[in-house]
Amino acid sequence: MLSFALTRLFRAVLTILLVMTFAFVVLRLSGDPASIMLGPDAPTDSVDAFRAEWGLNDPLWTQYFAYLKSIAQLDFGVSMRDRSSAIDLVLERVPATLALTVPTLFIQLGVGIPAGVYAALHRESTADRGVIMLSIFGFTIPSFVMGLVLVLIFAVTLGWLPSGGQDTWQHAILPIATMSVGGIGILARFSRSAMIEVMGQPYIRTAMAKGLSWRDVVWKHALPNASVPIITIVGFMVGSLIAGAVVVESIFSWPGIGRLLIVSVSNRDLAVVQCLLLVIASTMVIANLCVDFAYGLLDPRLRAKAAAH
Amino acid sequence: MTVQATNIAPPFTMIRRLRFKAPLLVVFGLAWLGLMVLTAVFADVIRPYDVTQMDLSARLVGPLTQGHLLGTDELGRDVLSRLIQSIRVSLVIAFGATLLSAFFGTTLGFLAAQFRGVVEHMILVLADFQAALPFLILSLAVLAFFGSSMTLLVGLMGFYGWERYARISRGLAISAGAQGYASAVVQLGAKPSRVYLRHILPNVASTLIVSMTLTFPEIILMESGLSFLGLGVQPPESSLGNMVGFGREYLTRAPWIMLGPAFVIMMTTLSISLVGDWLRDKLDPTIR
Asked: Between chains, do A142 and B255 touch, taking CB under 8 Å as contact?
């Protein structure tokens, strides 16, 4: 178990390092930040001063090591635009994004998994067909279309809910609804097929044959086994939640990290974009690590395999 | 074993297997996809107006008016014509990107299966990297800093989902090696390229095609999402996503600008999902 954990940790660190390198390479090779920040008509001496101040004249690898070193010291640089610390800019936006993504995740889990499991236990029923159809619709509607249609219905036509901003809790309803739909579809579909597969296993037949109640069969034998593949999907969904937040925050002018990303990407604010990429990648890596360790807890077979490894 | 039998089925039995009666929804999906492909191919012929042709006297005209079936946008450009052109652009991008990513992923998967060891680990690390950054965010960073061009966009989208093909082709190639027919050809003196292209690839093709039907709608959604955010296809070119993005400005006054392309995106991804699911049931030996 320990060596399994260490390997996973090592790979996680390696991944983060790779993301940092990627961010550095893409952002530095793509153009001269000095001319972008100061405009094409800036006088040469102010461009030179800018370049000297931000260390843009050093060879690329010197810049790279300076960058790695400062990140190791938890210094993510300052925004080129208003000189405030990049990590502060990012961290002050995080609560707004969490206010959307955390309720969304709970709604997705709370609706998607029960719907899928119910459909699996009542195969070929009307409810099952309904769940399949709705889940296919759920994940084929792009979130930006969903968001705009919801705005059109609930904000423009009916006038019940605000269409953008972050002043009251009502402002969060449409964004959360928009983000939830796709994940519910994916989870429902996935839990349905995981559950159907488990219900076809010999140990379920054995459990029923020895006279266990239907409830015990489902709760004690089927669900724990179906939870392993479902956990995998939940791990992936953290990523789509963050990507979804980028789109949804930009539709509803919600001041979270997604909007910050779009704004700083269009301003070419290197420090902030790097910092955001790093924060997002770390979140994803940690989520994936948790999923890997959750496997170990949920599935004794994997634990034995990891120990033998 | 049926698994073994389907694994080595030559392509024509694969097609014969498809000729089972298709459910109504699948027929509908195929019909819609056919319509979309025809639209993309004959876009220049069926388009009533030029995409950039402006008519400032007929701005924001509603749908079903004389001469403008789907209305016009804020510059008086015909929405139907733009929609037809956008279908072509979006489909071309998604098609090119799907092929690229299938090629790229399968090659990496075969390389991993052939060399194992270090190569395999490096590909694993790359897959980890891909899993650590949501693709939308990775593309946002790249496109924003390199500027958006059609070539870059297709190339970038071509990285979408490669790890899926790599995982599948690696697994299948390794198990094919254990099945005897591959090692038999190796012992006859065939070069690795011949073993992989002539013997292993045909046997894993059906599974790869099924993964392509999964990737294709996702790429359409990814491209339209990027274009919606203003970082994908750039004007004067238009794609389905970028029409929705611009239509958003006129959501209250002229919702038809945005609803047409949104409907097409939905129907297309829905159709591919329906057809893809059905294909998977028919073709994929691993779920039989």
From this structure: no
